[in-house]
Amino acid sequence: MRHYTTFLAITSLLSIIGVTEAATADQWKGKSIYQLFTDRFAPPSATAPARTSPLPETCDPIQQTWCGGTWLSIIDKLDYIQGMGFDAIWISPVSQNIDVYTPYNYAYHGYWVNDPLTLNPRFGSPDDLKALSAALHARGMYLMVDVVVNNVPSLNAYDAVNSTALKLDGSRWTDPAEFHPQCWIDYTNQTSIENCWLGDSKVALMDVNTENPTVVSTLNSWIGNLTSTYGIDGLRIDAAKHVPGPFWTNFCAAGGVFCIGEVYGSDIGFAASFQTQKWMDSVLGYPLYYGIVNGFGTVSGNMSNFVDVAQQVLASFPQPGLLGNFIENHDLPRWRNTTADSQLAYNAMVAQFIFDGLPVVYYGQEQDFSHGAGDPYNRAALWPSNYANTTTYQHIRKLNEIRHAVITNGTLFNGKNFLDSQTTIVASTKNDVAFRKGPLLAVLTNRGSPSVPQAFGVPTSGWSSQSAVIDLLSCKQYSVGSGGAISVSYAAAGFGGMPYVFVSQADAAALKICGDVGVATYVSHNETSTSSAPSSVSIQASKEFISVLAAGVVGLAVALSLV
């Protein structure tokens, strides 16, 4: 397969100037990550020819076969990713997979790795991967690669671990001692989780013996070569909890870059052990994901569970700012598959972006993909969407803009910037929550889109009475009430269930997100009574309040008197 002049120029430049230096955990703080499946993100093109032939006329996820995406085709659509404000991408595994038909069709996803040391020719050549890395670095973006070391697939579950079968399958590991004996996982036993096999009798995932000296030395040498050769800035570790934790310490050290692991499940203490024991830099935030689902997944969901989980996460992880925050991925339902209400989705995304951590958006989330209750339906090709500039695409762009602005500007609150501040829950009810992260105050609800004659009172916003604040999502200007209180009204048409991200007027002016922001005094013309604004304090609307917005544009009621 020939390579095109543009990409040869990029890779030639790399050989002259060298790849970028390894990115540490500290350098990943503040990044936002776009997760994609190489095969499904962007189609072949004149500059990114297909590596698979023939290709299906339509990429139907049910068929579970290759649709033609490559590392070069990702380059074609980097403008689309960067247009949302992302400064890192996470791509599916790059290593060689089994390349035969299975009861679950083909390994288009890249997770059935049988030789980690060899690149997957279905996605491109070594020069192609270098070109992708160089194209990202030229934009000031990071490359994170998914790696699979825990298991090797086999179509013969009960006679897989013998040298002849392993060699025929093209496995890197051909000595039976390099695998744990066959057994299916008992998820109530951590030893079983680490030593027994994933998969099933149709496609068994043979558990690699990561205590074997040959395996350990081979993998550590490989990961160091992979990151340095291809300019990889971060590693996403697949099935991290299925390998004894101490293995990852040396593995990640050998890689020399930021490591974030998949620790599937809601057990906060176990997930936190990967940081407390220093096995790796971070993990994907599954516990917070379940909290967000419970809090925002349905109208009037369980907000108290979200608050409880959020507080436990903050108390349990030494560095919650490095957790990967997501609301969908390739193993989970699409958010809009289970939650049709657009305002619930918007509130969930604000939680994902503003709470401590690194926001991770799975490709298609920005297009409101809803046909995906699970694998393989949640792995559809992106190109039928025409990469539209949807409302959700714009929401993501705004949230990334807010994060980047407060980080770049070094905006302080009580002497701490955004990255150095830990999220604090300020107020909550059964339907609402307000939390502060540095200079930002997020006010969220699970009431859903319809307007309701209710409000949420935040007794202490952190700002002084009568000071001006700006909602960065709408760029509306408001004034804080007595004692620093603010109250969000959901009564006006079109303002039911809206999320808010507030900053002081002075900070908003410095951030320049909302242009010229003057001081305004505003309160809803929808009266807010004590009974309709549950909080630790009572909120009462005053008839002396003056609205400076057009009739019907209502979002925030400011309490100027407390009873």
Task: Describe the fold and architecture.
With 563 residues, the protein is an alpha/beta fold. Helices cover 29% and strands 17% of the residues. It has helices spanning 5-17, 25-28, 38-41, 71-76, 78-83, 126-138, 163-168, 190-195, 213-230, 245-255, 268-276, 286-296, 303-316, 335-338, 342-354, 391-409, 505-511, and strands at residues 33-36, 88-91, 95-97, 113-119, 142-147, 151-154, 198-199, 204-207, 234-237, 258-261, 282-283, 324-325, 358-362, 412-413, 416-417, 424-428, 432-437, 440-445, 455-458, 468-471, 476-479, 486-489, 500-504. An eight-stranded parallel β-sheet has the order 11-10-9-5-2-1-13-12. A six-stranded antiparallel β-sheet has the order 16-17-18-23-20-21. A three-stranded antiparallel β-sheet has the order 6-8-7, with no helix packed on it. Strand 20 (468-471) and strand 21 (476-479) form a beta hairpin. It starts with a helix and ends in a 52-residue tail after the last helix. Residues 1-19 and 519-563 have low confidence and may be disordered.
Q: What's the alpha carbon Rg, rounded to whole Å?
A: 25 Å
What's the number of helices?
A: 17
The geometry reads as globular
**Strand neighbour order, sheet with most strands:** 11-10-9-5-2-1-13-12
Beginning-to-end CA distance, first to last residue: 75 Å
Structural class: alpha/beta
Tell me roughly what share of residues is in helical segments.
25-40%
State mean pLDDT (0 to 100 scale): 89
Percentage of residues in strands: 15-25%
The description of the largest β-sheet is: 8 strands, parallel
Count of strand segments: 23
Low-pLDDT runs of 5+ residues are 1-19, 519-563
